[in-house]
Amino acid sequence: METDFILPDLQSAVICEDVRCEFNGMQTLVGVLNVIPAPALPVNCMRLCIWARWCSGTGKFRQKSRIVGVDEQQVIAQAEVEFELKEMEGHATNVHYFGGVQFQQYITSRFISKTNCGCAFPCRWFRLRVQPSRGD
Predict the structure, then answer these.
(1) Looking at residue 122, what is its pLDDT?
(2) Which residue intervals of the chain are DSSP H helices?
(3) How far is the C-alpha of 17 from the C-alpha of 31, rounded, in Å?
(4) Structural domains of the chain in order of their starting residue, each with its CATH number
(5) Mean pLDDT within 95-122
(6) 133 vs 42, 112, 129, 130, 136, CA distance in Å?
(7) Which residues sit opposite 86 in a β-bridge?
């Protein structure tokens, strides 16, 4: 008996500033992030993206991505998309664009992307201390 539903594996998930589609169909990830240094609050991000690739599964799925605060209750931004994997050798690449995201405090935010299985990873926002330049 053949199974219609096999949970996919999250092959990769990346937080970045933009994702560009090239003429040849390839995607270019711009400004890959792991920390955001900021000199003052609030921190405004014109655009943040979560790029995710799912593979090794079959069936229809819904990816939900959220940017949440430290308490994991406050949702700062969220998006979702449905996708289908028709065969085990296939893959699906999803990009969530978040525009005009604002952070009110220096925190470790969690970016959460999940289907029925999930992935969560932190991105730290910290105060950038600017040293005054000395006149030479």
Answers:
(1) 59
(2) none
(3) 5
(4) 9-118 (2.60.40)
(5) 71
(6) 24, 39, 12, 9, 9
(7) none
